[in-house]
Amino acid sequence: MKLIKVILGSTRDGRRGIKVARWVMKNAAEYKGGLQFELVDLKEINLPCMNEPVPPKESRGYKYEHTKNWSRIISGADGFIIVTPEYNHGYPGVLKNALDYLYKEWVGKPMGLVGYGNRGAAASIIQLRKVLLSLDVRILDYQVGISEIWEAFDQNDQPKKDKITGSLAELFTALEKAM
User: Fold this and answer.
1) Mean pLDDT across 138-148
2) Rounded to whole angstroms, how far apart are CA atoms 43 and 10?
3) Are 172 and 33 within 8 A, CB to CB?
4) Does pLDDT of 114 surpass 80?
5) ∠162-110-157 over CA atoms, to 5°?
6) What's the CA gap between 152 and 83, in Å, rounded?
7) Dist CA 4 CA 14 (whole Å)
């Protein structure tokens, strides 16, 4: 089984992303393919602002234990899904920071994107794609978006169909085919 790490890219109090991440994980548990999924919450990882002395692309080892731990978490994955909000037409700084800490751990691995916010977080995903290209990630063309996030979930914490673009099942299948 291939391991997909689902990275929750928001850490702020009151974040809606936890609902989105739980929805992704619930659908992942029901997926019948050859993938196993694990949630990685950047709030729990709690990386400080990038402080490694050598850029990760040039590094032959990391100085700090928090970076070594983050490297182990990401190295163990065969692919990724990033769950990201849109803040002011961009993605959160905490997500950029987490991506910037590493390089070789991302290279060549497939990545799917799930955005939530204004127009399914389209603006933040455009920015995120540019950064992921520099990390040599294999970004899937297929993505999932959830619009109007404050109204998108019903009383059972399921997103309303009219607020979703794309399908998680299709995203999971695209990830599996990319490996």
Assistant:
1) 90
2) 7
3) yes
4) yes
5) 30
6) 15
7) 26
d(CA 58, CA 144): 33
Q: Residue 24: in which H helix or E strand, if any?
A: helix 17-30
Phi, psi (degrees; rounded to nearest 5) at 142: -85, 135
DSSP letter at 159 equals B
pTM (whole model) above 0.90: yes
DSSP β-bridge partners for residue 37: 4
DSSP code per residue over 87-155: BTTB--HHHHHHHHT-STTTTT-EEEEEEESGGGGHHHHHHHHHHHHHTT-EEEEEEEEE-STTTSB-T
The rounded radius of gyration (Å) of the Cα atoms in the chain is 16
Extract the tokens encoding 32.
Answer: 């019948």
Count of positions (residues) in the chain: 179
Q: Which residue has the tokens 């979930």?
A: 153
Beta bridge partners of 40: 7
Task: Yes or no: say if 110 and 175 are a contact pair by the CB < 8 Å rule.
Answer: yes
Question: Which class for 96: exposed (0-12), middle (13-18), buried (19 or more C-beta within 10 A)?
Answer: middle
CA-closest candidate to residue 80, choices 4, 168, 172, 170: 4
Q: What is the pLDDT of residues 118-142, one digit of tens each?
A: 887 889 999 999 999 999 999 999 8
